[in-house]
Amino acid sequence: xxxxxxxxxxxxxxxxxxxAEVKKxxxxxxxxxxVQFDVSEDLVGGAAYDAHGTPLTDATMARAQExxxxxxxxxxxxxxxxxxxxxxPERGLLRLRKExxxxxxxxxxxxFDALADFSSLKREVVAGLDIVIVRELTSGVYFGEPRGIFxxxxxxxxxxxxxxxxxxxxxxxxxxxxxxxxRSNKVCSMEKANVMESGILWREVVQEVHDRDYPDVELSHMxxxxxxxxxxxxxxxxxxxxTDNLFGDLLSDAAAMLTGSLGMLPSASxxxxxxxxxxxxxxxxxxxSAPDIAGQGKANPIACILSFAxxxxxxxxxxAEATRVEKAVEKVLADGVRTADLMxxxxxxxxxxxxxxxxxxxxxxxxx
Length: 368
Ligand code: NAD
Ligand code: IPM
Ligand code: MN
Prior knowledge:
With about 375 residues, the chain is of the alpha/beta class. It has two domains: about 1-100 and about 265-368, Isopropylmalate Dehydrogenase, CATH 3.40.718; about 130-260, Isopropylmalate Dehydrogenase. It has helices at about 15-35, 45-50, 60-65, 90-100, 125, 165-180, 195-215, 225-235, 245-260, 300-315, 320-335, 355-365, and strands spanning about 5-10, 40, 70-75, 105-110, 130-135, 145-150, 155-160, 185-190, 220-225, 240-245, 270-275, 280-285. The protein has a ten-stranded mixed sheet, sandwiched between helices. A two-stranded antiparallel ribbon has the order 6-7. Helix 10 runs antiparallel to helix 11 and helix 11 (about 320-335) crosses helix 12. The chain is globular and about 60 Å long. The chain binds nicotinamide-adenine-dinucleotide (NAD), 3-isopropylmalic acid (IPM) and manganese (II) ion. Nicotinamide-adenine-dinucleotide binds near residues 284 and 292.
């Protein structure tokens, strides 16, 4: 049987730097665990724009549709800030998400014990934290029409539209309830039903899906602004949070700081099952291209490495190998290995991106 296929789109800024460390883990899986992938690589974002004048070529899009999983680094950067909106690096990523119909974006925020003192919140608030934000990823204000900048009388008006259909809400709710059943059986849905009609519909449909198919799961509803406050006040009250595209974007960056660094947060963007029964999938760190540290060997590769671990679990049915990678990360952190973003107030000597990758590979060796 052919090896499972993996398309790597490293992208811009620190994307290629963190992806180089993931490649070490992929190599290790092949050499030491006999887990082989058919790996191909291509360009996305600013890198694709530089080469082809577009942030995602049709050929790359077609390849992404064919493979078992896509692994993406990050896109964007100041070099591309002045480009026309339609060819900005971020449009490449949004096209991938939309055309692959990756409606369910799982963003786990887990606080490793060794990092509990590095969070901006107190240790007791974050220690042992393990929550997942399920962000709707292919609709809402990111994609709603009408949109654009228009002239209205003697001034301009910028328009974006928040739009959700029942079926879009129902399918992401279902994925959150399914996930909850594998965890603590608890879902909190967040919207702003107090001010937005789309929020009223969101709340109703999530409740209907619950009552019809998941009555065994504990469901609560919260306004997203209060949810942001509760995430900072006592995040351990949550297990699975389901929310829309824009609120999910904001809440997941906030959740990142509970874990110590944005450089720690992986994500899986999942769509409908393919012929092999596995979901169409793209895995990417929550962070961006980090222009302020790009090219300096300072980036933390853990978010990207943990994204690959999610691929092992969700796309390749290799849950035990995913756990092995996660445990290796945990061990390295427990041993005090830290990239610069994980330096606590007491300071210390940070390791480079490559040294962090090497330490994780060494921990994998030690796991055998
Ligand atoms: P960012 O996530 O790139 O950086 C925010 C801060 O976090 C920076 O100080 C950065 O140095 C730090 N940081 C992020 N990842 C890190 C890592 N792995 N290790 C250590 N420190 C890390 O967000 P931004 O600065 O708002 O955006 C920069 C560019 O990235 C923009 O063009 C934006 O559109 C893009 N972006 C892309 C993605 C993506 O590709 N998925 C996600 C977010 C932002
Ligand atoms: C993310 C990013 C993206 C988003 C951008 C780069 C399109 O912030 O993945 O969180 O807004 O979804
Ligand atoms: Mn974001």
